[in-house]
Structures are given as structure tokens and as C-alpha cells.
């Protein structure tokens, strides 16, 4: 079914991959952006771009008029510069989600897709985590839990996509790893056995498309690649690619160990990653 789909976060790291995929499927895409410059650029690409702000409830009510689905892909992740001010991202998750859900209800928008994060599961050691596991978020991502709770409580046909740690174009993730390896500053957390579930941004985008078109109401999916990896294996791989020596163990910045399963989204939506492991994604 072809739909008019509103996208909040259309020019972000994920949104830039989602919008053209929606267009390729024949959907009428309406991007909600904050400034005319971005809107003009999107219009040249065939997107119905309108001015709006997820933190401005009235602008969302106007922007969602006539839409049949809405995607909440907006984030504002702070730069890893030491300051790490999460307040704006928290506002987008808490206030922005409330505004968007209210605007969707007011406009009788049927379908709603929410980008979320697997980090909500917390530290799970050696376990493989599926969507049934209780959420135990660290304090700095408490707003993501509250965001999901708002979606759970709404009356829309909603789906939540818990993405793994993003890497790929625009994320800066692998660029940072490689620079640190070359500079000799890349260090493996603790003893290196903690695991991480990654997702290439180009694989997250098709999951959003599939959820928009066919996910059941009230569905939740982990969107991660096929192979959780230890930090030791990941960082040594990156170092080898750059010709740097193996990074040392023992970084004081410890990371939670979280390995997630993607079995549900594969089974129910037929999704499969083009980059099944970090090796393919970092090639």
C-alpha cells in the first residue's frame, strides 16, 4: 500500500538513508525540517519538505495533515568531546515524542515507527538478548525508556525499532576508531571480553521501511547485525586494517557487555542485513 509518510529526522544520519528507500517504494514522503535551506534541498530530490520542529507541537499538527504514517527518526547525539551534554537529545525523546504522538492522533495518522536503542537492555554479560528481556537502562539514557513508554501508551498502530550501535557513512564511528588506532590512543575496555551489537546505518534503513509497511501493531524489534563482537576483536580488526599495532587492554572507560538477537525481525519482517558482520561493514 502506497502511503503519505511524514519523516522527522529526514536529514539525519538514518533519515538520509530512509527517505530515498521510501521514494523507491513509491511512497509520498513529507520531510519535517527546521529550516528552509534543508527544505529546498529536499524538494529538489522530489520530497515534500515542510517547516516544523519536533519541539514545537503546533508545527507538527500542521505538518502531519493528510499523512498516513509518521517516522520518529530524530536524535541529537552529543559529540564525543568530553562535555557530552545529552539535554537536547533528552528533550527530543521526551517532549518531542509526546508532541509527535499528539499531532499524529489529532490528524488520525494510522502508523507510527519509533527509532530506539538496544542499549536500554543494559549490561547483560554473556547472554544473547531478545526483545522479551526487561529493560535496565543506564541513567544517561533514561529518556529513551520514557520515550518508549509513551509509544506503548498511545492508541496508534506503532512499532519500535531498537537499533544497535550505529556505524557507517555519516556516523563518524569507524573514522574515530581508525584515527585512534593510528594515533595509538585506541584502547580495549577492561579485559576485552565485553561484547557489542552493531548495525550499519544502511541496514537500519530497510528495517524502518519494512516496519512502516508491514509491522504488526505493538511490535518491537532488535535491529542488529548477525554477530555480536567483543571489543578486543573489533578494535584489533580496526588496528590491523590501519596498519597499527594491536591496541592495549585495560582502558578505564569500561563498556557494558550487550549481545542482541535479530531473530524476530528476520522471522516476522523478512529483514536481513547486507552487512552481516562488522568485517563486511568495515571493508
Question: What tags apply to this protein structure?
Answer:
two-stranded parallel sheet, 283 residues, 15 strands, 7-stranded parallel sheet, 20% strand
Short synopsis of the structure:
With 283 residues, the chain is an alpha/beta fold. 37% of the residues lie in helices and 20% in strands.
Q: Topology as H/E string?
A: EHEHEHEHEEHEEHEEEHEEHEEHH
Cα gyration radius (Å): 19 Å
Strand line-up across the major sheet: 3-2-1-4-5-7-12
Note the main sheet.
7 strands, parallel
Strand segment tally:
15
The portion of residues assigned to helices is 25-40%
Taking all residues together, what is the mean pLDDT?
95
State the distance separating the first and last CA atoms: 36 Å
**Counting H and I runs of at least 4 residues, what is the number of helices?**
10
Low-confidence stretches: none
Please state roughly what percent of the residues sit in beta strands, choosing from under 5%, 5-15%, 15-25%, 25-35%, 35-45% or over 45%: 15-25%
**Outline:** globular
Strand pairing plus helix content: what structural class? alpha/beta
Please provide a written account of the structure:
The chain is α/β, with parallel strands linked by helices and 283 residues long. The chain is built from 10 helices and 15 strands. The strands form 5 sheets. A 7-stranded parallel β-sheet has the order 3-2-1-4-5-7-12, sandwiched between helices. Strands 6-15 form a two-stranded parallel sheet. The chain has a two-stranded parallel ribbon with strand order 8-11. Helix 1 (15-24) links the parallel strand 1 and strand 2. The model has no long low-confidence stretch (mean pLDDT 95).
